[in-house]
Amino acid sequence: MAKCMRLFLLAKLTVCLSAFAAGAATLDTITQRGSVRIGFVADEAPFSSSKPGADPTGYSIDLCGKIADEIEHQVPQLKREYIEVTLANGFDAVKNGQVDLLCGAITVNLKRREIVDFSQPIFLTGATALLRKDSPDYLQTLFIEKAAVRSVSQGVASTRVIGVRANTTTGETLREALESQVSKTRLADFETHEAGLAALQDYKIDAYIADQVLLISLAKRARDPSSLVIGDRLFTHEPYAIALRRDDADFRLLADQALTAFYQSGDLLPLLETYFGAEAPMLHTQIIMQHVPY
After folding, report:
1. Looking at the predicted structure, is the pLDDT value of residue 10 above 70?
2. Which option is the CATH number for 127-230: 3.40.190.10, 3.40.50.150, 3.40.50.300, 3.90.230.10?
């Protein structure tokens, strides 16, 4: 009986210690490790992208760097580890403690908030379509206020296929919309935006759907950017933020304090100009008006 009781108490202690470790504050874990793990999703320029042998770059990466600077005030000589993840596994990586900050074009929604928490918003955009100028008329009417002039080829047959990036909120929204009505149009998932762009240029799909700000960057990398047009009608609301572990209000506060301090500094506008060019002044006003808590 005594032996059984000891085994029971040991088992209970093991469970309690495991729960304690899982619930350890993020900053404590970073302090013990001596490094902050910054997860990033590649192929999301201008928010996060990477080249072999180099650290990732992008607007979100730089903002995660500002949070790391704040952490370094409490953890001297802090190291920064960059860990590439995907949209399919990135949120679980945050939940499981594999990364401390998840950076990229990360949309906040309720489904994702069941797994992770988020910083205050860092950007606001919406989904639309990247089209060829000879894409079918119904798509141009749907996504473009003034339909583009056909200039590539005439009478191109429609594939009735629209491309999306796999595991995105945009893909989920489109899939739900198509399931609710009888439609001959189908969706094709692509693992990267570059693959979707290639399919559009090769006439394998009629349109590629993603957040407008990502499509602007993607179109610049096309074989012939002048043959493409980006929709000006947005059909989703996509607030971006940095994903953090749930149930750690202190670490989220640290992240938000670092972001707010940077937003209010004189360095935000130059950073926006680096990644968004002429749109920077408008974006600066939007961020200050909508995303800075007082």
Report:
1. no
2. 3.40.190.10
